[in-house]
Amino acid sequence: MRFGSFEWLCRDTPSYTWCNLFYHQLQERGLGATLNLDPPASAPMGINPECGIPKMGSDGSLGNIANIVICAVSFLLVLGLIVMAHRRKAAVGRTELQIFMILYLISLPLQLVTTGALLEQGSTGLTAVTAVHAAVVATLFWSLLANGLIATQIVEDGTLSSLIPVGILSILIFAGTLYVSLDVGFNFTSALQSDPPQDLLSIPLFVLTSIWPAACFAIYFILMTYIVLGVLREIRPMWFYVLSGILFVLSQLAYFLLGKVVCNGTNGKIDGTFIATFLETAAVGVLYLAWKSITEESWDDDPYYPSYS
């Protein structure tokens, strides 16, 4: 397996989102027949996956119905978390946390479309939405890292000194990832075409959608561990952060390890994506509880956190 290759992911992981980009790339390059790609009208996600969910309406398929339902429920739950965070007017990092949750909220309907088997594989619409989804995911994890950096109080939270740098970097990360994703999918240039085609190779896309999120998550966890244990000297909030981290890791394991198991067990009716989405949303919910626990009224006199007005 070459670094930056999506070949094994698109074959072994049902509903792996970024495979949509490569399917369109190969079709645009006229390699669909050469590589024996499944017909677009009924093709599941992936590149000739070992198990996949056919497009909705094809052979009576309901699409990735389990994940569609979980995405919809998660949208409502996260919307509620955003409202609750907004009500904590004096809490440190409130604005930055809301930005993170809003980005996650936006990612849910995008995920519903890109993994729901709703649109024809290789279609312009699905490829474009997948590119936007990749850009939102990369920006989402930068927002998570920014929350950790702001929590160190290097700059005052909720002010222009914190929001402007975070906003500028968010725009740059979003635009950069969007360009890479669109170039992979639509072949704007030959620079990001997979060579050889069957390797589904794109190091920039792999870094932005896999390495970058993992690095942001790891650094954020280290920062919050330092703040909670080293600065606040509290134990209880740390358990929330640990639980949130465990839920996130489990969501990735469910996505990559359970996807094919569930897909084979249900004859391609559903896969493990809904489990991963449920665990990811749970991780975001526990992350909110962790943030809430370090801004409670019992710590109002702590110089690190301002008092409630």
TrEMBL record:
Keywords: Membrane, Transmembrane, Transmembrane helix. GO terms for biological process: protein folding. It comes from the Eukaryota. GO terms for molecular function: unfolded protein binding. The chain crosses the membrane at residues 65-85, 97-119, 131-151, 163-182, 202-232, 239-258, 270-291. It holds the Pfam family Chs7. One of its GO terms (cellular component) is endoplasmic reticulum membrane. This is Chitin synthase III catalytic subunit. It comes from Pterulicium gracile.
